[in-house]
Amino acid sequence: MSLYKQLLIGICLFTVIIFCGSFYVTLESSREQYHNQLSAHAQDSATALGLSLTANIDDPVMTELMVNSIFDSGYFYRIRVVDIKTGKPLIERQNTPQSASVPNWFVRMVRLNPGQGEAVVMRGWNQVAKVEVISHPMFALTRLWDSLVASFLLLSVCSILCVLGAMLMLRRSLRPLNHIVDQALAISRREFLNLPERPKTPELRRVVEATNMMVTQLKALFSEQATRTETLRQEAYNDSLTGLNNRRSFDIKLQSRLSDEEHAAGHLILLRVQDLIGLNQRLGGAKTDQLLVAVADILNELQQRFFHNEGFLARIRGGEFAIIAPPILPQEMENLIATLSTQLKALHETGMSDVTPVAHFSQVSFNMGDTPQALLRQADQALAMAETEMRFFADTQAPQEVENEDDHHHWHTRLETVLAKESFELFSQPVYECNNKNIILHQKILARIKTPEGEIIPAGRFMPWIHRLALSRRMDIVMLKQTLKAMEKSTQPLALSISGESVADEESMNALLQPLKGARHLAGRLTLELDENELPNPEQVSLLVQKLNTLGCRLGIQHFGGRFHLIGNLPQWGLAWIKVDGGYIRHIDQEEDKKLFIEAIYWATRQINLPLIAERVETEGELAVLEKIGLYGAMGRYFSDASTLTK
Questions:
Q1: 528 near 548, Cβ under 8 Å?
Q2: Where is the EAL domain (predicted)?
Q3: Residue pLDDT, tens place only, 68-112
Q4: What is the number of other CB atoms lying within 10 angstroms of the CB of residue 24?
Q5: pTM for this structure?
Q6: How far apart, in whole angstroms, are the C-alpha atoms of residue 483 and residue 442?
């Protein structure tokens, strides 16, 4: 029971006790007072009648007349004149008047005794008769009933006002406790809230100040840990000169991409600044560094423009840069070559380089199963060919492999049909507890397309076309509808990936979440996941989390690791979990830098009780390291193949 209820019940009990006590004291004092009045009234009447009869006791008519006049003038139960010698009544009057305004139960409860009085009638010095008077309490009962009713109403009104006043006072006084509860619940949701209002009660003020200090210190500790981990990540995976990803980060990303059947296909673009050693000797190190930074800026801008942040740009060594890009059409590649050529020529014309072309670059395609060594060797050979032939660009893609307009039309027709019929094939991959392979935390939903011939097409083949044809929002809505239908036949928690386009603005969010509004009973078992690179601005993420919480659903982040600076926003989002990109998990038992990085993420997220899940775990050695670090969950081929169908 809450403190508010306990205090309120205590105040109510105290009020009831005071009420009953006051009512009882009032009743008893009034009853005693009226009893005394009745006794005095009876005695006074008896005395007056006795004196009056002294001169007329021998006259029966006059005696009766006097008794009747006294009896009729007051509230008497009985008046009797008794002969002292014989003990026989000379005259007796008796009556039992009733009062309709006083309930019988009140008469029985009060038990107000009638007053009695006696007087002696004298004849000279002799006692002749005795007068007995018994007054009736009807009048006193009526007055007592009226006074007690008025007293009851007054006490009731005062008690109600006191209880209402106590409720208001308690609510106002205990309001800071509610804020403290909200603050504690926010901490459990990995949010840090300060209470700006200080209560006037000294005890509560100290409690609020102490909790605010605790929250501030927790927030500072988390921010410090996040900053330290981000610094560690930059030192390990960023190039200090250009700010791009370095060779270690590039190797991790390339290996991860080639082993990911969901996003395996793509292009590797390799660029090398011409005669870097000669530039150092002729222009000096500072000028050469400026050239490298300028080239990095050009590639970063082109990467965002043509690949919409889906590409991965790195400086792999010296004057060599690499881009891991999603599949692109030949026309887009031609536009990229022309734009890059123009901007590199501008560097020569402005004197940043004294050789032309400033750089050469090559492009090779890759698919799942290719090895990083073979792919880099192929790209390097193409680049060497371009340098030998003094060509700006070299492309190793075979003519028959080039996507044409027929492919465009074919994929558009196929995807439109699947979206219209809502006929994606739902596959799933289980996510297990790290330290207990028998406990499934949830199932990760994967999308497939089934051709009329029965072929199952993985997401890695059709997702680039989904993005290229701007069908991401429609696909997310269709996948959500199909997932909710599948949840009707299952009791397992599920996780579903959505694209950044579906949460880019509030209108898109509302359209995406519309199916959830009609399935609130299922929303508690569903978690939506966003890629780290597709997260909108922090305000949009907070709005999305708020909308999902309203529906009972939650949000998680997948493929995390490249944008660690986002961890500073994690406390205010209240995420369900974070899934670490598989590139940082592969060979973690052999590469110490990956282990240190995962440990840094783990300790940063542990402070806010945010579960950490590893993606694409493939060996027992990798799992053993993750268990030792303390990760919450893991998924990958080591546990189960990704093609397990959700029944």
A1: yes
A2: 408-647
A3: 887 777 677 788 888 888 888 888 888 776 655 777 777 777 777
A4: 10
A5: 0.64
A6: 13
